[in-house]
Amino acid sequence: MRVIGGTLKGRRFYPPFLEPTRPTTDFSKEALYNILYNVWDFEGLKFLDLFAGTGGHSYEFVSRGAAKAVAVDAFGESVAYIRKTAEEFKISDKLTVVQTDVYRFIDSCTDKFDVIFAGPPYKLTTLDTIPHRIFEQGLLQEGGWLILEHNPDHDFGQHPKFIDLRKYGTTYFSFFEA
Length: 178
Known about the structure:
Blueprint: H1 26-39, E1 46-50, H2 56-63, E2 68-73, H3 76-88, E3 95-99, H4 102-108, E4 113-118, H5 130-137, E5 140-150, E6 162-168, E7 171-177
Parallel strand pairs: 1-2, 1-4, 2-3, 4-5
Antiparallel strand pairs: 5-7, 6-7
């Protein structure tokens, strides 16, 4: 895996197999960041990475100038890997890693973010509740985006904050705006 843009562009990271992570493929990640690059000025953004897994999206945002990124994952191996990689990339000052259940984090978080990315396990039975919970808790700044990665088994088109859907094979990104 690699960072595809910004000051860390080209830096590779080699996560061990981390059960139950499913890293976003480079193909779909490049497509996603092409969209984001045309809409957002990353400089100074506050970014939240839910179900962070390998931390790839956090590295991308910090690499592109985000002032702060928070990576949340319940699994100790993932958290340890993200912390280790952040130190290797010398971005620990901008990347906070939190080990906790994502829903517990959402329910207790009082911070607001410009962009939230959620890449949950596709088989997560509560995946469909993620947008509602994030908007109910008010985690996005006005105009902020939630990007939810999912498979074709989920349809968010009727959600009142839904703005777009992009499909890359069986990887879908649903976009929501506060």
